[in-house]
Amino acid sequence: MAQATFEEISAADFFYRNRDIAGFTNPTRAIFAAIRELVENSLDAAESIKVPPDIYVRLSFEGEASEETQIYRLRVKDNGTGIPPQHIPLAFGQVLYGSKYKLKQQRGTFGLGGKMAILYGQITTHQPALIISSTGGTRIYEYKIMIDIQKNRPVILDRRITLNKDGWRGTIIEFTLEGDYLRAMPKILEYFKQTAMVNPYANLTFVDPKGRLYIFKRATATMPDPPTETLPHPYGVDVELLQRLIQITTHGNMLDFLKNHFHRVGNVTAKRFLEFSGISPSKNPKKLSHDEIVRLVQMLRKFKDFLPPDAGCLSPLGEELLRTGILKELKPEFLAVHQRKPATYSGHPFIVEVAIAYGGEISQKNGFVIYRFANRIPLLYDEASDVSVKVIESMNWRRYKVAPDMPIAIVVHICSTKVPYKTVGKEFIADRPEVRREIANGLREVARQLQRFLSRREHADRDKKRLGVFSKYLPRIAEFSTKLAEKDKIPDIERLLRNVRRYGVE
Amino acid sequence: MSEPERSVLEKRKEVLDKLRGLGSRIYDQLERGVFPFIEMPVRSTENIYYDHVLRQFVLGDKRVKRSSRNIRHLKPFAQLVWAALFSYELTSQRKTSTLRDVYYSAQAYEMTFKDQQESNNIITDLETVLGYSREDFSIFPEERSAVFGDLTIRYTVPGYEGKTLNLTSHPDGVMIGPALTSAEFEETSADKVIAIEKGGLFTRFIEENVHKKFNAILVLTAGQAPRATRYFIRRLNRELKLPVYIFTDGDPWGMHIAMVIISGSANAAHLRDLTTPDAVWSGVWATDIVEYKLPTDPLDDIDMKRLYELQKDPRYQEDPLWQREIKTFMKIKRKAEQEAFSRYGLTYIVDEYLPAKLEETGQKGKTK
Q1: Rounded to whole angstroms, how far apart are CA atoms A334 and B43?
Q2: Which residues pair with B146 in a beta bridge?
Q3: What would the mean pLDDT of A462-483 be, rounded to a whole number?
Q4: pLDDT tens digits along A63-117
Q5: Which residues contact B359 (CB under 8 A, 6 or more apart)?
Q6: What are phi and psi of A276, to 5 degrees?
Q7: Which of A388, A421, B163, B203 is packed most tightly, with the most Cβ within 10 A?
Q8: Is residue B290 situated within a structural domain?
Q9: Nearest CB to A496: which of B35, B77, B84?
């Protein structure tokens, strides 16, 4: 059992041994994953205080590690909230640090990615990580830390405090890691491009090991409303989460426990549930046995009268921002965006946003260009397994006048407090009927708009071509008939051509 | 002695008037600010009927409107007007051209045709609109048929106007081309016309003095008779009152060469003056194959299929002879070429067969 394993080795050790699941599979994936995790943390950090993110990423070459891998220095700087000094060592030096007892839509899932990156860097290069952060106060704090893997504790090698003369706020993380940038490059650049697409309010700068500069400028300063924290919904609770809630709760009876730790559970619902499950309202949750906890989870799922989750905790991008982002990165000739109403699966609220774009910088290949996003993160791997791809493939596109060789991009963004990833690698969305339905309905809506655009364009094309044909042949008919009738003056055909222009005729 | 249906010159004037009329109609429509259109009979099979009085295929009442308002008709419409102008210029300058020429000439006017077939179709459209065959507006096929015999003609073509020629003056025969087609008939001593399918036999007949022995004008159709030749045969029959005897190979294809001279083809249902209803098919009949014990080849599947088609063809219902011969072909399943008579010696066909057949079919021709 995983639980037993957790007791025997530290969390850091566990992830060290199982780094595949966090995406650090090989030198190519690792360098991609490290950049991605840190950029996402930075985006979250800026968004949480409603500041348009300014993120600077620099990857520089440090030396050869082996024949196929090199050592790089990665530096990521943001203008986010900054980290209070007392939290810095733990935030970066302890795996699974952070409170996740409340839920809100976030990019990362475990609060793990950034630390995994540093851990991976330490494992491969044996160098400490440098963390510089300020919350905008009078001081800037610098830490040089390593992680004690066995104990899952930070080891502070150096600590410095400097005066924050310019009132800087944000975080800088710098460390070395092994990787294969040349192989990772296409995915990294694609990652930045797609991130810019769904974060059109962010400035992204990337300097690669060759010194090439990639800048993705923000197109708007408008940001989506930040997500509010929410309690877990009873339908979405598992044994692990329930155990954690019991550990931290300050409530001494089941009625208060339910009322205070679950989403959309009030006095009436809590009482009815306890009656339904035959649990005494006065029972102390901390006294529940393991079997009782397991049964409680089962009863929570069986009870039919919980109210559906409220989507207030979600922060979709919104049609306007999605439009801005896509226009900025793809410059399409046509674009339709659509946001679905909130829906739920297994007690987790989610919102699907879709877009379809035609022409512009979209490449014309056989099949669509598909951009998948979850909580504003681009998903770049395992496209074929993703539910969006399955939905797209099962649609009858000919109905919408869409041919496979058209330059079309499809964007699917799903945001949720718990994105239904199929694997821990967070690369593709599982095929859940509720999710599938929302994506399909959303795509149908934008496909209809595309169809209207294509028809209009076809009409315009046809009219233009028609006018061309008339402009070519009517003058000839006039010329030939004039000669044939042995007249001198060629009749005026402008009136007929005007008719063609205006009414299109037959 | 010649009594033309109407003189060659008159006909040309009619054609020119018609072409100019077409131009004026379109010009006026344009002047009035309407999209010009043309109406003409439909040429597809459902509008082709056999006329028992005319003894040829004719077009029914169905008409089609070609309007330049319709984008699909626009290009063919322009091509048609161009073809009319081209024909008008040719005819008024008394020049001639061919279908192939038309195809290329169009390019000089930036009126390109997709292919030869497209330009041929436009010429057929023009025939239908005008009711005249393309030879009348100076577009001729490649010449291959010829005539030989005591007939004096007078040319009307530029440079030869008024000149006369006796059609015995060249031993290979005289080609039936535009100049001969537009010539007036002066005089003849012949009392019949013999049309022959094949060049070899035509030459044999000249060598054997058939024209003298039988007092005949010999016409070589060279396979299926071109329309200029069919028109020429008709003129010999109508203007000079000469009976026409047709000799072909003894097979369904030869039989049909005779039929097209007599009753015309479905393809020319929009045209008149190309048939010679009183002409007769004198041989080689299926019954001749039996009677003269000719060397034969078997009829193949395609031949048999053709026979079944012809059996149902209304043109073959006119005279019991046709049905009798078709049935005989089907029964003996053999065919014979005109040259088959050579097994009895080179002159047998002239000495024996020809007089017998002229006698036989001539009787019949008179009783008609």
Answers
A1: 48
A2: B175, B220
A3: 90
A4: 988 888 899 999 999 999 888 888 888 777 666 554 444 556 666 544 567 788 8
A5: none
A6: -60, -40
A7: A388
A8: yes
A9: B35
Taking any CB pair shorter than 8 Å as contact, residues of chain A touching chain B are 466, 469-470, 473-474, 476-478, 480-487, 491, 493, 495-496, 505-506
Task: With CB atoms and an 8 Å threshold, state whether A505 touches B88.
Answer: no
CATH number of the A2-216 domain:
3.30.565.10
Alpha helices in B56-213 (DSSP H): 71-92, 99-108, 116-130, 178-181, 199-207, 210-213
With b for 16 or more beta-carbon neighbours within 10 A and e for fewer, the B293-308 pattern comes to ebebeebeeebeebbe
- pLDDT (tens digit per residue) in A327-355: 999 999 999 999 999 888 887 889 999 99
The answer to whether B17 contacts chain A (CB < 8 Å) is no
Q: In terms of C-beta density within 10 A (0-12 exposed, 13-18 middle, 19 or more buried), how is residue B244 classed? A: buried
Q: A467: nearest CA in chain B?
A: B71
Residue B368 has pLDDT above 50, yes or no: no
In 3-state terms, what secondary structure has residue A332? coil
Q: Spot the catalytic one: B104, B160, B344, B348.
A: B104
Domain residues for the domain of B287 are 146-367
Residue range A425-464, pLDDT digits in tens: 677 888 888 999 999 999 999 999 999 999 998 888 888 8
Residue B176 sits in the same domain as residue B98: no
Q: What's the confidence (pLDDT) of residue A142?
A: 94
Q: Is B316 a catalytic residue?
A: no
Q: Looking at the structure, do residues B125 and B151 belong to the same domain, yes or no?
A: no
* B2 occurs within a structural domain: no
Closest CA to A83 of A110, A121, A49, A123: A49
Q: Which residues are registered as beta bridge partners of B118?
A: none
CATH 1.10.8.50 fits A234-302, yes or no: yes
